[in-house]
Each structure stands twice: as structure tokens, then as C-alpha cells.
């Protein structure tokens, strides 16, 4: 009997000291006017020390319940198909007054920051904490197709290159006509001495080459050379 009584006392003590956390999603228009419209796959995950993790599906009253939480520091994340929810830091600590009930506190936390960096306070309770969490933004999986924008069209690299080329084509004659005669003469000399002038001259000679005459001259010179050899014999 004594053993049974001691076990009962220990069980009652552990249940009395266990902390409970209830997180509800209220109506938050215009982003989420009706929390009942959340997908059934919406669930919350409470991650504690290594190896400690709790999951709670969303209930009909739009709440998540985590019973019997041990003394530790937890990270609460709500996973939804259509909305983003801010992560919360939940601390379960011993009560300051020395009672059996534990103190449960919650703050907003920020990913990529130090764990000690706490955001807005979400409430505190002895033995149990009931708090609310609202969505921060809505997930958008589709991007609206934009219409024709003349500014974006002109900013295109191909269009800019075409505009610059057109400006050179129509602007160079005007610049050459208004150029100083001495400067124009120097510019012409530079063009003649440039590497492109030699290649253009070679191309012109190749185009004006008379291949028929060259073949005819080669044939006559060959026959003449053969006749000279016959005479010598």
C-alpha cells in the first residue's frame, strides 16, 4: 500500500508540474478573415533539445495543443500551405515562487539570429499558456504576367545596340561634314594607314583578278617554252 501511495503521489506531482501550451489562430482580416479555411494539412511543430520534437495538427477550433511539456526552451513553427506564420520561442521554466506549476512564456523569434534575440512578447502563464498567432503574409505560387512596357523594351541590350548603330549611321555623315578640314584630312590618312585599308585593298584586287586571262597567258608561255626547246634540238 505504501508503494502504491508513493507512486500515486509521484504521478500526481509530475502531472501537476507538466506545462501545457495552446496556440490558436484568430481571424485576421483582410489576410485571413476565416481561419476555418486553412488547409487540413496545417500543423505546428515544437522543437526542443536534441531528440525532443512534438507535432500537433490543427483542430476544429483552429488551435494547436501541446500537453505535458518538460522544462526546456522550444521553437514553435506553424506550417501552412497558403500562409506564412512567424516562429515563436517558448520557454518552460520553474516558477519563481517555488510552486509546482511551471512558467510558460512565448516570444517571437527570428531565423538567422541569435537565440537570445527576442521579438514581441506573446504572453506568459503558470502551468498553461494560451496565446494567439496570426499569419504574417500569404504564399503566392504564381506570378502575374506583366503587359508590354516601352521602358523595359528600350532598356533591352539588343535594342540599345541597335539604337547606337542607327545613331552612328545617320550621325557620322553630319559629323564628317561639319568637321574641320585639317582634322578631316588627318582622319582620312588614319583610315588609309589602318589595318582595314590593306585588307580592303587585297579584297579589291582579288575581286578584279582576271583568272581567264591568267590561264591564257600561262598556256601561251608554256607553248612558247616548248617551241624554244624544239628549236634548240
UniProtKB/TrEMBL annotation:
It is a single-pass membrane protein. It comes from the Eukaryota. Residues 34-161 form the ER membrane protein complex subunit 7 beta-sandwich domain. The chain crosses the membrane at residues 158-176. It is found in: Membrane. Keywords: Membrane, Signal, Transmembrane, Transmembrane helix. It holds the Pfam family EMC7_beta-sandw. Residues 1-18 form the signal peptide. GO terms for cellular component: EMC complex. This is ER membrane protein complex subunit 7 beta-sandwich domain-containing protein. It comes from Friedmanniomyces endolithicus.
Amino acid at each position: 500500500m505504501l508503494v502504491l501511495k508513493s507512486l500515486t503521489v509521484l504521478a500526481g506531482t509530475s502531472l501537476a508540474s507538466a506545462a501545457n501550451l495552446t496556440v490558436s489562430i484568430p481571424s485576421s482580416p483582410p489576410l485571413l478573415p476565416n481561419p476555418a479555411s486553412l488547409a487540413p494539412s496545417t500543423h505546428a511543430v515544437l522543437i526542443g533539445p536534441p531528440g525532443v520534437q512534438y507535432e500537433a495538427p490543427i483542430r476544429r477550433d483552429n488551435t494547436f495543443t501541446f500537453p505535458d511539456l518538460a522544462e526546456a526552451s522550444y521553437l514553435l513553427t506553424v506550417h501552412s500551405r497558403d500562409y506564412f506564420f512567424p516562429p515563436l520561442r517558448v520557454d518552460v521554466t520553474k516558477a519563481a515562487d517555488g510552486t509546482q506549476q511551471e512558467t510558460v512564456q512565448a516570444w517571437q523569434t527570428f531565423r538567422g539570429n541569435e537565440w537570445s534575440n527576442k521579438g514581441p512578447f506573446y504572453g506568459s502563464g503558470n502551468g498553461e499558456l494560451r496565446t494567439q498567432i496570426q499569419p504574417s503574409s500569404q504564399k503566392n505560387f504564381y506570378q502575374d504576367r506583366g503587359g508590354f512596357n516601352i521602358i523595359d523594351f528600350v532598356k533591352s541590350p539588343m535594342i540599345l545596340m541597335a539604337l547606337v548603330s542607327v545613331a552612328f549611321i545617320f550621325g557620322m555623315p553630319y559629323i564628317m561634314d561639319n568637321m574641320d578640314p585639317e582634322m578631316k584630312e588627318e582622319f582620312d590618312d588614319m583610315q588609309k594607314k589602318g589595318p582595314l585599308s590593306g585588307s580592303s585593298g587585297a579584297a579589291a584586287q582579288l575581286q578584279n583578278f582576271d583568272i581567264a586571262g591568267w590561264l591564257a597567258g600561262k598556256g601561251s608561255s608554256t607553248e612558247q617554252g616548248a617551241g624554244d626547246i624544239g628549236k634548240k634540238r
